[in-house]
Design a protein that fits this description.
The chain has 357 residues and is an alpha/beta fold. Helices cover 38% and strands 16% of the residues.
Length: 357
């Protein structure tokens, strides 16, 4: 908000936290995406960032470890970026380090605060929601250059005033208290990370590299264009990430479609043949097909909304939940009719929600 205006450019990671792009657009500035590719571990190369800087560039947004890929930027690339920025003294850096303590396999976080040569144009963001699982407390902090503190304070006062006292005391308790629960949480995340990646890579046409940070696994789908389009359609119409514009969840690489898979404990599953059969029968009736009596797949309740289930999304969530069970596969003609019925239903529900909202 402070750096954006018509005519300005702000570089942001893509795929990345969708609010980066939407806020840039809201400010009037032009968003300049920085592709994060699977071949680079979903980190960036310094030269890719520097090559996107123009006389209009005001700000570079960095997020490592990253949402939604779990990728990290290695120290040598940060060294190169900081060195290269010496040629661009008017470009500021905003480093979102909210996942800085959520690392695996011995990886060490490199904070931009360790580079005094950019201290006069660095904004560092962090908070309690990830490391301490205090998402609902809505509390974070930031480090600003002295020249911008007054402007940032004025913005905060007019946007959210201040954090309530109870939340502030809870934040102090988290910082000064024992870390037993944090450590246990990270052990659980690591177990889910390994399991999720291994199971995703068993699926035909799916690739998922091992993330080194945060709590995401970012799967990619490779194959014919028709298969990728169908994958994207199913992901988006099921609204796997309802708050995100569809393109924001897809890395800018030819031949790849991708979307994030949270590995958090909120992914829960329950095996229920009765509810599975009821769900599938309702779906068949909607398509004008005869109901059938068969055992069903694992029913999964993910931490985000979706419409009527089916296809690759439900299959992936079934695998991630890890409860096994056979997936019921319709024949090609029937599956096509079910898909068409789903599209009609999805469109109707979206229109209803827009009218209500």
């Amino acid at each position: 908000m402070m750096f954006g205006e018509p005519g300005a450019e702000i570089i942001y990671p893509n795929p990345g936290f969708p609010i980066y792009e939407s806020t840039i657009k809201f400010s009037g500035a032009t968003p300049v995406p920085l592709p994060l590719l699977e071949e680079n571990g979903f980190g960036f190369k310094a030269e890719d960032v520097l090559s996107r800087i123009t006389p209009k560039t005001r700000l570079i947004i960095v997020n490592s470890p990253a949402n939604p890929t779990g990728g990290i930027v290695e120290k040598d690339e940060i060294d190169k970026l900081v060195k290269g920025l010496e040629q661009h003294p008017n470009v500021a850096i905003m480093s979102d380090e909210i996942y800085s303590e959520m690392l695996y396999d011995g990886k060490v976080h490199t904070s931009f605060l360790k580079y005094p040569q950019i201290a006069d144009r660095l904004i560092m963001l962090d908070g309690w929601s990830k490391t301490y699982a205090m998402t609902g407390w809505r509390m974070g902090y930031s480090v600003w250059p002295k020249s911008l503190i007054e402007h940032a304070t004025r913005l905060c006062i007019n946007v959210h005033s201040c954090v309530n006292a109870a939340a502030q005391w809870a934040g102090v308790a988290a910082l000064t208290g024992p870390r037993d629960e944090v450590n246990k949480m990270m052990v659980a995340f690591d177990e889910r990370r390994r399991f999720t990646v291994a199971e995703l890579n068993k699926l035909p046409g799916v690739s998922c590299i091992t993330p080194y940070g945060a709590f995401y696994a970012f799967r990619t789908s490779r194959g014919p264009a028709s298969s990728r389009r169908r994958w994207k359609w199913r992901c988006w119409t099921r609204r796997v990430s309802p708050a995100s514009p569809a393109p924001a969840s897809v890395p800018m690489a030819k031949g790849i479609c991708a979307s994030p898979t949270p590995t958090r404990s909120r992914i829960s599953a329950r095996r229920s043949s009765a509810s599975a059969a009821s769900w599938r029968s309702a779906r068949r009736r909607k398509a004008g097909l005869q109901s059938e009596e068969q055992g069903g797949p694992l029913m999964v309740r993910p931490p985000f909304r979706w419409n009527s289930g089916g296809g690759e999304v439900a299959r992936l969530l079934t695998v991630i939940a890890g409860a096994g069970g056979a997936w019921h596969q319709e024949d090609g003609e029937t599956d096509q009719k079910l898909d068409e019925a789903d599209r009609v239903d999805d469109g109707r529900q979206c229109r209803n929600e827009l009218q209500e909202g």
